[in-house]
Amino acid sequence: MDEENDQVIFTNKKNALTGQEKEGDGFPALEPETYNDARIVASGYDVYYLEEEWRDWWVDSGKPPLSNPDKAFIGFCKAGYEKNPNP
User: Domain range for residue 33?
Assistant: First the structure.
C-alpha cells in the first residue's frame, strides 16, 4: 500500500509491475492510462484480471513480441467485451 497526493494505492504483490517488466513473462509494464482505457472498453470487468488473461493468452499462443503492448491489450479487452458484455 502506498500513498501519493492524498490517494491510497493498493498493489497486489503477486501482480505488481516493476515499471519495466512483469516478472517472468518478459512483457513491458503497461502505461497507467492503458488501465483507464481498458475500463472504458470493458466496462464492469476487472482490468487486472483481464491483463493476466491477456498475458497468458499471448504467451501460450506463441505470437511474436509486441511492438505496442498497450494497444494490443486494449484490443484484447474490447474484443472480449464485445463477445461477452456482461461480466
Answer: 18-83
